[in-house]
Each structure stands twice: as structure tokens, then as C-alpha cells.
């Protein structure tokens, strides 16, 4: 379980850092179009949030019970982002090269986190 949390949290740290540096890259890869103006600022704000989520959920030397809040937060995020990206993908007009792989990755992480929660 700890490896799953490290992977999921690390993914959000990297995504958050990337959004802080240049949100245009992520919007082009996910949605197939760029972003400007207030969208750049909002992308960086989102990057801050994802970076903080990843860091807060990164397990240290913890017991299995102390991993539950991080697992709950990452499960909630992954389910919601899967549904949102799936909705956007089904709209058909905003699909970049990484949209469907991102949907698949977040769906798999959601399932794995659900399995972990069911075992506890």
C-alpha cells in the first residue's frame, strides 16, 4: 500500500510542479489547446494545490492505520478527476494526446485505492 501512495502522491507532486512551471504544456497535452491570461494563473494555482496534495499524502515512516487519511484524500481526488476528465473527453472537442491515458491512469489508481480501503 505504501508504494501505491508514494506513486500516486509523487504523480501529483510532479504534475503540480509542471503546472507551476508552464500550464500551457499540460493544457495542450490534455486538452489539445493552449491557455492564456487568467487561465495561466489558474493553472499555476491548480499546480500549487496538486503539489501540496502530493506532499501531504506522501507517506513517511507510518503505520498502516496512519496511511488511511492520505489514501482517502488520494482516492477522492482520483475518482473526481477521472469523472471530470471522462466527461471532458466524451464531449469530444477537448482531447489532447494525454487525455485518455490520464483517464485510464486515474481510473486504475482509483480502483487500487478502493481495494486498499476495502481491506482496512
Question: What distinguishing features does this structure have?
Answer:
120 residues, mainly alpha
Topology record:
Layout: H1 2-21, H2 23-31, H3 38-57, H4 68-91, H5 99-119
Helix pairs in contact: 1-2, 1-3, 3-4, 4-5
Structural notes for this entry:
The protein is mainly alpha-helical. It has one domain (2-119). It is 78% helix and 0% strand. The protein contains 5 helices and no strands. It has helices at residues 2-21, 23-31, 38-57, 68-91, 99-119. The longest helix is centred in the middle third of the chain and has 24 residues, at 68-91. It is globular. The N and C termini lie close together (11 Å).
Provide a concise account of the structure shown.
The chain has 120 residues and is mostly helical. Helix content is 78%, strand content 0%.
Number of spatially distinct domains: 1
Strand content is: under 5%
- What is the quaternary state of this protein? single chain
Number of strands: 0
Number of helices: 5
Structural class: mainly alpha
Through-space gap between termini = 11 Å
Order of helices and strands: HHHHH
Tell me the helix content: over 70%
Poorly predicted runs are: none
Mean model confidence by pLDDT: 90
- Taking Cα atoms only, what radius of gyration do you get, to the nearest Å? 15 Å
Largest beta-sheet details: none
Q: What form results from the Cα inertia axes?
A: globular
